[in-house]
């Protein structure tokens, strides 16, 4: 319900769990007449100025909503929408390929900038939730101490049964209210953690898509040809496995081969086992001996 100045002045303000906070004294408005803050008389705690966004008019009571709750709701709504848009953008890119890559990059950079801002807000909200949980635990200890002291007083006959019953009723109500608030804080923390997990998955999805595309390419006939260019796995010096043969042809040398300076071995005749000396023999009379053998 929309809050107007006459509608809230003089009304009681309660928190979400029904506890009385104070009474509306008046408002501070902007030059255009819009309400900025609402002054609430909180008794011994003095006058508190509460933001207009934190108040909701419900029948005859104004409900006060904690600031951390409004911030958490806004954060969850914005981050959830941003993650859904990133996932939708990735689906569009996977369906249309390079045709929409340029347009998608511009929008993706915009969403990344938004996520970076939301990450900073998330850190602040988590800190505020932890601080609030600490405050609730400290107040719970005080309430339990008061209740336990009342039990001692009733046993020592310092207070009556009706007085103890009043103390016990109010103490249990406060403890129940604290329990509800802690449960709500825990739910908000779990939702924030779930969104962080979805954010991590949205970052990993492009990598998985690239890997799947690469595997599909390797399974194709074109991709199998590229496997021959993979480097062989390095082996230790003690390994006895043979090295893979090189598939590339060795380049032919253009340098002239050096002449052999070693004497050639004797050549055997086809019908005799007598070696025939070659012209490179060191014996100077090899020609005369060959003629004598032919004459005999």
Description:
- This protein is an alpha+beta fold and 296 residues long.
- 55% of the residues lie in helices and 13% in strands.
- Strands 4-3-2-1-6-5 form a six-stranded mixed β-sheet. A two-stranded antiparallel sheet has the order 7-8.
- Helix 2 runs parallel beside helix 4.
- About 25% of the residues have low confidence.
Q: Which band does the percent of strand residues land in? A: 5-15%
Radius of gyration: 46 Å
**Which structural class do the helices and strands define?**
alpha+beta
Terminal Cα separation, in Å?
141 Å
Instruction: Say what oligomer this is.
Output: single chain
Short structural description:
The protein is of the alpha+beta class and 296 residues long. The protein has two domains: 5-65, PRC-barrel domain (SH3 type barrels, Roll); 69-218, no CATH class.
Secondary structure topology:
Blueprint (H helix, E strand, L loop, with lengths): L4 H4 L3 E4 L4 E10 L5 E7 L5 E5 L3 E4 L2 E4 L2 H30 L4 H55 L5 H59 L1 H5 L41 E2 L6 E2 L9 H10 L1
Parallel strand pairs: 1-6
Antiparallel strand pairs: 1-2, 2-3, 3-4, 5-6, 7-8
Helix pairs in contact: 2-3, 2-4, 3-4
Feature tags:
single chain, 296 residues, alpha+beta, SH3 type barrels, 2 domains, six-stranded mixed beta sheet, two-stranded antiparallel ribbon, 8 strands, 55% helix, elongated
